[in-house]
Structure formats: C-alpha cells, structure tokens
Amino acid sequence: MGLLVGLAVVVVLVFVMIISIYNGLVSLKLQAENAWADIDVQLKRRHDLIPNVIETVKGYAAHEKGTLEGVIAARNRAMSAQGPAAQGEAEGVLSGALRQVFALAEAYPQLRAVESFTSLQKTLADLEETLQNARRYYNAVVRDFNTKIEQFPSNIIAGMFNFKEREFFELKDSAERETPKVSFDAKPA
After folding, report:
1. Where are the domains of the chain?
2. I want to staple 149 with a disulfide (CB 3.0 to 4.6 A). Which of 10, 37, 58, 158 is the partner?
3. pLDDT surpassing 70 at residue 165
4. CATH code of domain 28-177
5. Cα distance between residue 30 and residue 32, in whole Å
6. What band does 181 get if pLDDT is binned at 50, 70 and 90?
7. Tens digits of per-residue pLDDT, 41-99?
8. Which residues contact 53 (CB under 8 A, 6 or more apart)?
9. pLDDT exceeds cutoff 80 at 159
10. Helix and strand numbers, DSSP H then E, in the chain
11. To 10 degrees, the CA torsion angle through 129, 46, 39, 182?
C-alpha cells in the first residue's frame, strides 16, 4: 500500500513538473512573439517615415539620385523581408543607406537648415533608439527561450511538443555595422 502511494506521489510530481516546464516554454514563446511584434511596429513606423525623408532631400540634393534610389530599394527589401534573420540583414542595409542620406546634409548646408528635415532626422533617430531597445529585448527573450529548449529536462518537453529555436534579430555582416563611407562627385550649386 505504501509503495502504491509513493508511486502515485512520484507520478503526480512528474506530471506537475511537465506542466510547469511546458507552461514556462509557452510563456517564453509568447514573450518572443510579443517582442517581435514590438519590433515590427517600430519597423513599420521607420518604413513609413522614409518616404518623407526622401522627398525632403530631393528638393535640395536632386543630383544625388543614386543615393536616394538606394534608400528606396533598401526600404522595399526591408519591408518584404521575412523572419528575424532576413529582416535583420535587410534592416542593416537600410540603416547604411539612411546614414548616407543624412550624410548628404553635411554637403548641403541649406538642407540642414530646413526645419522639416531636422524634425524628420530627430524622429528617425528616436525611432532608431526605440528599435535598438526592442531588438535587445527580443534577443534576450529568444536567448532565454533557446536556452530553455536546450537544457535538460525541458529539452525533452520541448521535443515532445515541437518547440523550435527562434532566430535572433542581428546584423550578419560586420561591414553592415560600420558607418558607410560617403563621397560626393559633384559639389552643390
């Protein structure tokens, strides 16, 4: 009789442990999805702001058409990228292209004096900071989730319920982390 009670207690404890591990994995998975949704919102705001920046710059740096078209192309790639890894790569290219546009302001003092350009530049800088914080949070949650999936005994539960590792949102190429070199062939009139 005592053996039967002991066995029942062990079964209940194992069952409670499985539920606890499963709920922990679900919680981390949902946190990662929520963190990704936060990044997605900030990226949409960024993508929506870029056409305004381009239109403002066009009036002052019309002969910098290649730079402006590069930003538009990078924006389109970033908007169509799927998944954190592809999105991170596309956003890195877009960030480099945007830095080139804002570097144009150095060559065009009249552009720097335009209030709408200055306002757009500040808004974009604020968005970049918010995005950076959202990326850090997302990657921290993904790190915790992926670690939990790999650790024993949660790896057994993760395998039973088909939990898969999530991708980090990061820049793949070290060149994308560097400030792009900008040169101007023609001087402003």
Report:
1. 28-177
2. 158
3. yes
4. 1.20.1440.20
5. 5
6. very low
7. 999 999 999 998 888 887 777 667 788 888 899 999 999 999 898 988 999 899 888 88
8. 71, 98, 101, 117, 120, 121, 124
9. yes
10. 7, 0
11. -60
Mean pLDDT (the chain, rounded): 85
- Assign 151 to helix, strand or coil: coil
Are 126 and 99 contacting, i.e. CB atoms less than 8 angstroms apart? no
Q: Is the peptide bond before 188 cis (omega within 30 degrees of 0)?
A: no
86: left (phi over 0), alpha (psi -120 to 50) or beta: alpha
Q: For residues 70 and 189, what is the distance between their CA atoms, to the nearest angstrom?
A: 23
- Using the structure block, give the residue that is written with the tokens 């890894």: 85
What residue type is assigned to position 41 of the chain?
Answer: V
Hey, what's the torsion of the CAs at 59, 68, 122, 51, to 10 degrees? Answer: 80
